[in-house]
Amino acid sequence: MNFKELGLNDQMLEAISFMGFEKATPVQEKAVPEILAGNDLIACAQTGTGKTAAFVLPVLNNLTKDHKHETSVLIIVPTRELAIQIDQAIQGFTYFTPVQSIPVYGGGGGSDWDSEKKALTSGADIIVATPGRLISHLNMGYVKFDSVKHLILDEADRMLDIGFYDDIIKIINFLPKKRQTLMFSATMPPKIRILASKILTKPKEVSIEISKPAEGVLQAAYLTYDTQKTPLISSLIINKPELKSVLIFSSTKLKVNDIVRDLRKTEKNIQGISSALDQTKREEVLSDFRSKKTRVLVATDVLSRGIDIKDIDLVINYDVPGDAEDYVHRIGRTARASSTGVAITLVNEADMFKFKRIEDFIENEVMKIPLPHVLGEGPLWNPKQPPFGNNRFKGKGNNQSGKKKPFFKKKPDNRNKKKD
């Protein structure tokens, strides 16, 4: 379906053409008409499906028809990077319009705070904010949200995972009760349904292929010992100029520096990014990776959702992520917008059970590739449930039967027994 069939006005169609979009994605086809009709919406679509444009385009369509210089749209997101990305997308779509937007997020300097305060008091058309930073402004008492007509929660499940539920409710208490509320989420756990029931009114629902990797991703896994991981990665990327963009995920920010240090012995064009960096540095690192100045980027899950970096050739999971959803989002960084890509996961003995759970979740057995001969043998595939204490999945408790063993053995009761 082309965008003209969705009912967008000429200004938006011109902006879409300028941005180089041709056909609407499935989530755009289903969501845009519902939003234009004024309905509340709960939409479930994984990252990389075009959901940013699915809510930005119809909202901008309404603003350009009746433009008033006041804060009409509030978009709440879980991370600074996503706030910046959405703001950049809005700037592209509004290039030929008077609509203005501003991102509101922590980690910047005093000048950022002042410009945010000015926008929140005098009125920017669209505010894209992280919850914590926005609440800091709200607590000062000068924020003007009387004219907000559209509230959008993007990556809602991620915000709840981080612990932003109370912050979201607090922010909503500052907004007019009469408004359009749109909730976009990659997954639909019960807690999202509970939040939706509290803040949405008779919402329409859109669901697009929940939590499945894109068809263009070639998935594979290596069974490795931890000492083999860095040499393996080096062998995968060294002397391969066709791999212009490689993204490596680590589960902890502490491990990011270790991976960068070890790989730098064979790969000089490498950087790391995590919440340990200040915002200016993070933006610089991301910019270098987007522009291909940096070939290899090592990151935490802060980059697994909502960050649109095109043409990533190879994604490597240095370790198995904590749950299947994170796996889907990580490997979703490659093969975006109908392209193809490769995603490789390094699985040690302790992570085999988690990886088997991921395979069950995505309904696909991931191909296991033998290690290069020079690295020696890796562990055998044996995805048994780990001992109690190491199992990060909810399940059977502390033994295979599901029955809890007593911590202490009971002493025999001899009170009624006759003595010999």
What does the model show?
The longest helix has 15 residues, at 51-65. The protein folds into 2 domains: 3-208, P-loop containing nucleotide triphosphate hydrolases (Rossmann fold, 3-Layer(aba) Sandwich), CATH 3.40.50; 217-375, 3-Layer(aba) Sandwich (Rossmann fold), CATH 3.40.50. It has a 7-stranded parallel beta sheet with strand order 3-4-2-5-6-1-7, with helices on both faces. The protein has a 7-stranded parallel beta sheet with strand order 10-11-9-12-13-8-14, sandwiched between helices. The model is unreliable at 388-420 (pLDDT under 50). The chain has helices spanning 10-19, 26-36, 51-65, 80-93, 110-122, 131-138, 156-162, 165-172, 190-199, 226-237, 253-263, 279-290, 324-331, 352-362, and strands at residues 41-45, 73-76, 101-104, 126-129, 150-153, 180-185, 204-208, 217-223, 246-249, 270-273, 296-299, 314-317, 341-347, 367-368. The chain has 420 residues and is an alpha/beta fold. Helix 2 packs parallel to helix 3 (51-65).
Helix/strand class: alpha/beta
Label the overall shape.
globular
Order of helices and strands: HHEHEHEHEHEHHEHEEHEHEHEEHEHE
- Strand arrangement within the widest β-sheet reads 3-4-2-5-6-1-7
Spans of 5+ residues with little confidence (pLDDT < 50)?
Answer: 388-420
Helix content: 25-40%
Tally of discrete structural domains: 2
CATH architecture annotation of the largest domain: 3-Layer(aba) Sandwich
Our measurement of the CA-to-CA distance between the termini, rounded to an integer number of angstroms, reads 91 Å
Under CATH at level 1, the class of the largest domain stands as Alpha Beta
Largest sheet: number of strands, sense, barrel closure:
7 strands, parallel
The H-level CATH homologous superfamily of the largest domain, spelled out, is P-loop containing nucleotide triphosphate hydrolases
Strand content: 15-25%
- Report the radius of gyration as a whole number of Å: 25 Å
Query: And the CATH topology of the largest domain?
Result: Rossmann fold
Provide a count of the helices: 14
Instruction: Quote the average pLDDT.
Output: 84
